[in-house]
Design a protein that fits this description.
By secondary structure, the chain is mainly alpha-helical. The protein has four helices and two strands, in the order ββαααα.
């Protein structure tokens, strides 16, 4: 007769009823069992996905095609220079690594050689020489920003005291 069944209804789901078994105690003063607190729910946390980036080889391929086809389509030295300056602003704002800009400058040098040797045309070769110079300038500015971001340890006066 001293057996008491305690039913506990968790607050998060009222339809679930967990029955606890009856407990016999030696002393008549403690005949009821204290209800257990509802177990805490543990939710699996998903890791934040990094933003998807275009593969590096595809970036280089697209840049090569753009550099080779761009001047042929535009036939304008001013528009090409504006495109490279626009890339420079974009690279500075988006913090594109200087390595990428130097790679684009190398591709522009190769395109200059291709236009001079294969086609013998000096006008596109001169345009690509200008693009190479502008891309090298953007790369130096990006590299300077990267070095300053690291604390300027390469060209710092503090570290080079004799």
């Amino acid at each position: 007769m001293n057996d008491i069944i305690v039913r506990h209804r968790p607050a998060y789901k009222p339809s679930l009823i967990a029955a606890t078994p009856a407990v016999r105690t030696a002393s008549p003063a403690r005949s009821a069992v204290a209800p257990r607190p509802a177990p805490k729910r543990v939710y699996r946390q998903t890791a934040a996905r990094p933003p998807r980036k275009m593969p590096y080889w595809l970036q280089i391929l697209l840049a090569t095609l753009l550099l080779l086809a761009g001047p042929m389509i535009l036939q304008s030295d001013v528009l090409g220079q504006l495109a490279v300056v626009g890339y420079g602003v974009f690279a500075f704002v988006r913090r594109i690594p200087s390595r990428t800009t130097f790679t684009l400058a190398l591709i522009a040098i190769v395109a200059t050689v291709i236009f001079l040797v294969v086609r013998g045309n000096f006008t596109p070769a001169g345009n690509f020489a200008t693009y190479t110079f502008l891309l090298l300038s953007v790369g130096v500015i990006s590299l300077t920003r990267e070095i300053k971001k690291e604390g300027g340890r390469v060209y710092s006066i503090k570290n080079n005291k004799a």
